[in-house]
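Running this now, will post back.
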Amino acid sequence: MLQSRYFNFNITKKEIIMSNPFGKTKKENEPYAIYSNSQGWVWKVLKTYKKPENEKKDSYARWFVAATSPGILDGSFEYGDTYVKDILTYGSLVDATDDWKKAYA
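Update: finished.
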């Protein structure tokens, strides 16, 4: 626990150092990043479960996304987890926050 003469913080140094910058779930209209491909797939990344450097070590790392595909005729999005490797293999980055670009560029 972090403490000072004047304040008692209820968090540990480990929690500060180990935080995931993309771990807070965002809304569909404000994603961290958008990936798409020429076949009509679009993935809006709303949350990651691991820090970017830890995802590289895990072939099963996943992101929480809002996704649409050619099979969804009305253009709506479905929510769920998708493997990072699938998005990076089949999609291209279209737009992202500055923090995302720094972490995944």
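The helical segments are 13-17, 52-55, 84-90, 98-104. More later if anyone needs it.
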